[in-house]
Amino acid sequence: MDKIILNQMQFYGYHGLFPEENKLGQRFNVDLELYLDLKKPGESDNMYDSIHYGHVYELVQELVEGDVKNLIEAVAEGIAERLLAMFCLLQACKVTVTKPDPPIPGHYASVAVEIYRERSI
User: Fold this and answer.
1) Catalytic residue list
2) What is the pTM of this model?
3) Residue 121 pLDDT > 90, yes or no?
């Protein structure tokens, strides 16, 4: 399956279990793989035959910077649901939401969740 990839989109949101996360906020990174047939837009060179990744970015930004969730799992699920609802050409998507600086002790680069969702028939 062909795919459009959006890497390391960065946003500032207020998701998390701890009150300080909801008050102070933090950075979130989102990576997407959008699965669809790219043969037609590759031949036609017409944007209407594909998915406009600028619109995808705006949708993800609205969700990550919008309503507060306790879990990044819920953020990822909301992104996948909206993408599948908004883009009829999209057959499936992989969504990764990364918290680079979660408020937990230890030494690590980040924590993340990754989900894969397909369009229901």
Assistant:
1) 99
2) 0.95
3) no
